[in-house]
Amino acid sequence: MEISDHESNMQVIKDVSSNFTSTFCGDMFSFALGLMLLRATGMSLSFGLSMIIMPIVTLIGLVPIGNLVDTYPHKRLLIISLVVRIGALLIYSIAIGHFDGSGKLIPTIGFLIINYASVNLSNSGYMASVHELVNEGHIQKLNSLSQSAASFASTFSPIVAAGLYVIVGFRLFIVFQLTAHVIALVILLTMNFHYLSYPRKSSQTPQESQWAKFKLGLNYLMAHGFLRYLICIALFLNFIFAVINVGLPFMIVEHLHLGNVTLGILNSADALGMLIGNLIISVSKELRHLAKILAVTMVIIGTGLAGVGALLMAAPEQLVVQLVGSLMLFAVGMSLAFMNTPFGIYMQKTVPTELMGRVSSTEMSLNMMSIPLETVFYSFVFQQIPSGIVFIISGMALIAVTGLTMPAFMHVQMPRTDHATQKADRQRL
User: Fold this and answer.
1) Mean pLDDT value across the chain
2) What domains does the chain contain, in order, with CATH numbers?
């Protein structure tokens, strides 16, 4: 059954609303959790606890989550995921009051493990269910508006959380998060999932091991040259982009002594660029020249990073850094939107639905596992090399990799995938 434009629009509205609520309250909760742990333990690790736990949980859950998503109805998995998060948060809200000082890390670590396992299941399930929610003409709108909602929420949630925490304390943030989960669950229950009528290969061969089932997704990924290249280039871009997350606070606050306000302005400019970029994508015609778009955006990102490095090395007045730096990072953020969103759309239009869970979980796992590596790398590099030079080298490296690798794929366009095409893909597997 073909999904109508009207139903697709309604599904988009529901998804964006759910995504905004979940991201806004989730980011506030994470910020408040870090503040609570910092006050209770006095450990700087409080805000970095998630960065340690998330990759570990992601790696452990890589194979089973990918197989689950490709075996069972996606709506059922998404509902279970939310119910688990609600239950875990309720238990945590009771347990945390029975621990003091560093002891609060015990229930927190347990909660984060369960929470991130559930989030990984939900993210993979969502990636695999896009074709079940909207028709082909609304995939771009769904992805771009969902990313816009997440960008907007991530931009303003820390500001709101910082102000509220002083007034209401940590407990109320648990209430906010529970409310967000319940709202997301209610919205999910009203959404229609139009399952494609094909037999799931995973259910046909129950004697296969978890790894054997998972290898089907890996084999598809390895056989698809451009998709494999995109995942590799995304990993490299994420690695390079850590120069901002690690180096910008160090350079602005510690080296140039320009204060937290300047840092906040620059970070907001980057987030605002991503928001505007996704909004532009949402109202644009269907993106076609995929490789050309990616090549241009990567060059802009590389140029922006190098430009920020040159600006900071010049050590101009605070106002100049705020204005010029904001423009550069705005361009970087907008370009990043034109990188990330088309990449997601391409995966959803290319990968057969029954393999999407395994392919998407592989991609997300690689990204998650790279976070601690890139953080440690740049933390070390910034202690050895002047910060501005690190920015310039990182930007030029991205431009060089783009120039050396992208020309071979410049002919690639965004596919106009339909269910018939997916059926043909499945038959070739």
Assistant:
1) 84
2) 5-197 (1.20.1250.20), 217-414 (1.20.1250.20)
